[in-house]
Amino acid sequence: MKFLPGNIYHVYNQGNNNQVLFCEDIHFHYFLQLYKSNIVPHCETLAWCLMNTHFHFMINTDNRVLELKK
Questions:
Q1: Are strands 54-61 and 8-14 parallel, antiparallel or unpaired?
Q2: Per-residue pLDDT tens digits for 16-56
Q3: 3-state helix/strand/coil string of 2-66
Q4: What are the residues whose beta carbons fall under 8 Å from the beta carbon of 18, sequence distance 6 or more?
Q5: Reduced to 3 states, what is the DSSP secondary structure of residue 67?
Q6: pLDDT at 70
Q7: What is the pLDDT of residues 6-18, one digit of tens each?
Q8: What does the alpha-carbon distance between residue 53 and residue 46 come to, in Å, rounded to a whole number?
Q9: Distance in Å from the first CA to the final CA of the chain
Q10: Cα(59)–Cα(26) distance, rounded to whole angstroms?
């Protein structure tokens, strides 16, 4: 997906057939570490929610998003 500057996006995903994505606390922490290192430098996080079977992020993009690789 290509993100454009100056937009707000609702980014979400879920496991197949409500499969559990995050079984233990360490899985939540690892996912957030990946998010922090790969997404946070390129946009502003407005809201987020992690649940066992899915996640949601509301992000606001600016010109930093152009640095993301396709």
A1: antiparallel
A2: 998 999 999 999 999 999 999 999 999 999 999 999 999 99
A3: CCCCCCEEEEEEECHHHCCCCCCHHHHHHHHHHHHHHCHHHEEEEEEEECCCEEEEEEEECHHHH
A4: 53
A5: helix
A6: 55
A7: 999 999 999 999 8
A8: 21
A9: 8
A10: 24
